[in-house]
Amino acid sequence: MTPSNPADAIKLLAFDVFGTVVDWHGSIVREIESRFPGVDADAFALAWRAGYQPAMQRVRAGELGWTLIDDLHRMILDELLPRFGLAHLDEASRRELNRVWHRLDPWPDAVAGLTRLKARYTICTLSNGNLGLLADMAKRAALPWDCILSAEVFRAYKPDAATYLGAARVFDLAPHEAMLVAAHQDDLAAARACGLHTAYIERATEFGTARPKDVSPDPRNTFHARDIGHLADLLNC
Amino acid sequence: MTPSNPADAIKLLAFDVFGTVVDWHGSIVREIESRFPGVDADAFALAWRAGYQPAMQRVRAGELGWTLIDDLHRMILDELLPRFGLAHLDEASRRELNRVWHRLDPWPDAVAGLTRLKARYTICTLSNGNLGLLADMAKRAALPWDCILSAEVFRAYKPDAATYLGAARVFDLAPHEAMLVAAHQDDLAAARACGLHTAYIERATEFGTARPKDVSPDPRNTFHARDIGHLADLLNC
């Protein structure tokens, strides 16, 4: 008897974006190096990203009202600039720099892998990034999403269950008919707790080549893939 | 002195979908004729669509809580079936038939016209249809949206100002940097009252070839186009 393939039940692939589909660290390092030679671009990128979870936590805790990630990125940026000798940047420059998150480059396998998966599945984002950010990013990088879903639609950030269940509900699916694809085990664990399938993507250099990340498999995930192309292989796309 | 071209300020084209991009009447007629020979498919399509505004009005008036268009379509369908001798349809058949709204065919000019416009503008939907409906439709018909926006995102139906202003705000734009494209003057008038530019698309056969619609120009619209390809011409795309 052939064991049933979980891939047969899955209709929707919902992708985490920052780190999973796009290389935020490398993209920000390249932009900081080109705009501000002499600034420690690696430290700048890491500090900007490190401010992200505490900023979302302020919203979750009710200390801040519902806030788009663009605005959280800007709050973190404003705190960061003096530490990197950039306190002199004017409003227009800060605004433009903050939009680097709309200009992140995809990992080299992302566009081709997504295009293969799209032929069989509905593929969408499920990101804490706001809709405008995700749409600008997709347009620039030619990411072929069928639909852009965001924390903004559900007014809740991942790992709130409302986001994972909300993505399935948008497509009138049961949780087990959807799969979250992400490079972060905590995101996947939260999706799994909601009944979604999960696929882990290795992104060992998410925090830069100098700081390799543990990408060990967790057997609780439905799939474990080296990259999005490999996931397409595993799903016979 | 050359008068400034409004097209130069516009960055976002937000499209009404039912009737403007897709031919709901023709698509539903074709499906009813093929499933239920003998049923008056033209009358069926018109009655289903005619139930739509009153159903949304029940939500606007607070008589119904927030309801997705899929569910409104289904409520209308259930009322309609006995009138057309189809009261015997079971749950699975009703569910499947209701999804005809996810399978509407685009007008012949839509995909090519949108593709031209996408090269210069961000193009999104701004429809009362729910996200899953719009995404299924786009995937099937290869509509090349940069982003799918819906009443569902704003929890308000057009012509509520929250929808038009919300679409501009998603992209961090002022209202005059966005343009609504629609085949319905009332939708356009509401967008114009919010400060958006407006483009009218002639769809004389929206209600069927037997029932041509008045497609006279309204000089208050920024553009008046025969179809989406013609709009691309007018915008030099």
What does this structure look like?
Two copies of one chain form a homodimer. In chain A, helix 8 (131-141) links the parallel strand 2 (122-127) and strand 3 (147-150). In chain A, strands 3-2-1-4-5-6 form a six-stranded parallel β-sheet, with helices on both faces. Chain A is built from twelve helices and six strands. The radius of gyration of chain A is 18 Å and the shape is globular. In chain A, helix 3 packs across helix 5 (69-80). Chain A is 44% helix and 11% strand. Chain A is α/β, with parallel strands linked by helices. Chain A folds into two domains: 6-23 and 104-234, Rossmann fold, CATH 3.40.50.1000; 25-102, DNA polymerase, domain 1, CATH 1.10.150.
Mean pLDDT of chain A, nearest integer? Answer: 96
- Strands in their spatial order, largest beta sheet of chain A: 3-2-1-4-5-6
Please indicate the percent range of residues of chain A in DSSP E strands (runs of 2 or more): 5-15%
What Rg of chain A is obtained from the alpha carbons, in whole angstroms? 18 Å
**Uncertain residue ranges of chain A:** none
| Silhouette of chain A | globular
- The succession of helices and strands of chain A, N to C, reads HEHHHHHHEHEHHEHEEH
Total number of domains of chain A: 2
Number of helices of chain A: 12
The largest sheet of chain A, given as strand count, sense and whether it forms a barrel, is: 6 strands, parallel
CATH superfamily of the largest domain in chain A: HAD superfamily/HAD-like
Briefly note the CATH topology name of the largest domain in chain A: Rossmann fold
Q: Which structural class should the secondary elements of chain A be placed in?
A: alpha/beta
What percent of the residues of chain A sit in helical stretches (DSSP H or I)? 40-55%
**Oligomeric state of the chains present here:** homodimer
CATH class of the largest domain in chain A: Alpha Beta
Largest interface: A-B, 20 and 20 residues
Report the end-to-end length of chain A measured between terminal Cα atoms. Answer: 23 Å
What would CATH call the architecture of the largest domain in chain A? 3-Layer(aba) Sandwich
> How many strands in all of chain A?
6
